[in-house]
TrEMBL record, chain A:
It comes from the Bacteria. This is Ferredoxin. PANTHER family: FERREDOXIN. One of its GO terms (molecular function) is electron transfer activity. Residues 1-29 form the 4Fe-4S ferredoxin-type domain.
UniProtKB/TrEMBL annotation, chain B:
Its cofactor is FAD. The keyword Oxidoreductase applies. Pfam families: Pyr_redox_2, Reductase_C. InterPro entries: FAD-oxidoreductase/Apoptosis, FAD/NAD-bd_sf, FAD/NAD-binding_dom, FAD/NAD-linked_Rdtase_dimer_sf, Reductase_C. This is Pyridine nucleotide-disulfide oxidoreductase. It comes from the Bacteria. GO terms for molecular function: oxidoreductase activity, acting on NAD(P)H. Residues 311-377 form the Reductase C-terminal domain. The keyword Flavoprotein applies. Keywords: FAD, Flavoprotein, Oxidoreductase. It comes from Streptomyces fuscichromogenes. Residues 3-290 form the FAD/NAD(P)-binding domain.
Amino acid sequence: MHVELDEPKCVASGQCVLAAPEVFDQRDEDGIAFVLDEQPAGDTLDAVREAVAICPAAAIRLVQR
Amino acid sequence: MNRIVVVGASAAGLAAAETLRREGYDGTLTLVGDEPHTPYDRPPLSKQVLSAEWAPDRVTLRAPIELDSLGLELRLGVAAGGLDVANRTVRLADGSAVPYDGLIVATGVRPRRLPGEGAHVLRTLDDALTLRERLGPGQRLVVVGAGFLGAEAAAVAWRLGAQVTLLEPAPVPLAHAVGEEVGRVLARAHLERGVDLRTGVTVTEVTEDGVRLADGAEIEADEVLVAIGSLPNTEWLADSGLTVGDGVVCDEYCEAARGVYAAGDVARWYNPLFGVSMRIEHRTNAAEQGMAAARNLLDPGARKSFAPVPYFWSDQYEMKIQAYGYLRGHEEARVVEGELEQGRFVVGYRRGERLSGVLAVGMPPRVMRGWRQAIAVGAGWGEAVG
């Protein structure tokens, strides 16, 4: 599974970083999220699913490529 | 459990439905929504949708294929009409009845209105699209209520070239929520741009030509937007036996009655982190609470209290306002980092002897996470703000 982040949708809430800190971080200047690990596995993948569900901008997707 | 009904097909209801499936529930799952649309996101309505930066379909929360994969019985465009807890049945407005073993109530809120016809409100996608059609250069817009929604809409309308008058009954906008100092910063942002913010002004009704004020004066407008808060959608629960009092009253597990949970804007639950009963109308809470309610419904033996640090944001002009915690009812607000005048600051809020919340503009994420963590661990005011 690949993590996709729709950057223009991101509202810089940082909820993804709280849910899956191994996979997401935020830019210092504007708080917009970025992906650290595009292909997480195992427990980390579960954490990303949590982040997908919790993102208040619906900006994160897990997709099969 | 073989039949779960989720009433409310917005952020909280969708999060609940997805969580039920993710946690392995494979029985019948009915999602009821009074709007005809599949679940969509509301925060952009007063931002990118109103400004027409985004096409309406950009707010859709899940692609059709993602919704399909949930195996839902989708009942869209039909409101819930009643609940019979004893017989575990939801009655819908079209006369049909849906039995359940487990129920999640996520019917949200609706805008409060003023007497008189013809004013806009801003809650649904259709509301936003209707208002956006009418906004443009030179249009005179009166916004009633300078809360977060009214302020965001005013900011967008100003950017579109409308002549905006923003009317607020309180002396300082949002002071009850964020404190007077921050309220004045927000007020100044309007005034500096030429938005005609008038405080201490109470609107009594919408008229053909605009709005009438409590002192009898009238303000003319081409369009009027009423943004004076919301009411929880609980009328359908009358006689259900559920306790309703400014929302569906729940315990710390979001349970309202055996097998009945509530989530999102409509839920009033006891948040043990702050030791108060609260009802939160924020997007982030909708998702978090929908997930929490779903998990507790599925596995009552391992249920967890729902004790989040609430979070919200608001975009007004070029300012992004972010807040963590519970700001309402604070006893003190103090700038704890940066400076208000520079538009780069953190304000801390004290309730009792604790740091109960922070609000920030222009601060880096790691700073915000630090403050959030302090609230999450229940840090004392003295130790947190030094």
